Amino acid sequence: PPPPLSSSSSPSPSSSIDTSGVRYSDKGKQIPVGNGGVTPFYHWTQTLYEITIYIPVPKNTRANSLSCIIKPQFIEVKFKNGFDPIHGFGDSSGILLQGKTPELCKPDESVWMVEGDSSGTESVVIITLDKIKRTWWSSIIEGDSTYQIDTNMVDSTCKIDEYDPETQGAIRKIMFDQSQKAKGLPSSEEITTEDILDKAKHLPGSPFLSTTTPLPPS
Questions:
Q1: Which residues pair with 67 in a beta bridge?
Q2: CB 3.0-4.6 Å disulfide test: which of 20, 37, 43, 197 passes with 149?
Q3: Listed residue (14, 49, 13, 51) closest to 32, CA to CA
Q4: pLDDT tens figures, 143-152
């Protein structure tokens, strides 16, 4: 069997992923793909809200044959019965991924599953980690400098519906105000002020109400 893994390693080379197409920045770090990176043992993507890790395993692997431990700043994925010398996945202890993550996640909001890959030759473990801090990770395992991505090159643009409701509302307000300004029309705040004044005109005792001549007593 292959030698044991370090905390920043993963499966044995016999189950490696092709990394020949990986490109590097002038800093010597990976240019992000899907805002994530590629290692010989897994690849991963990310948004500001979550991390998704894809780990290849033998075809027809079932979830009950694996152990996936997710803690606030630690992850471990391994075969319960140890290393499989026939397929060559995992280290001598069956570990596929293990180590401290660079940032915190929410274990209760994180999930994992096993699915067949598109080629039909392997299965894949898919792990989704829910981030606590909305920031870009440079790697899955802290200190794994070999496979770090250049976080200055991530695509930080997001669709509006990827933000929380409060942020969506703020973005839509800015977009509306910009559109109104371009058309020479009042902004959302000006419209709100006008609506308030219009309603105030009709309140009892309002100074905006027009005076009327009282009717003579009958």
A1: 78
A2: 37
A3: 51
A4: 888 899 999 9
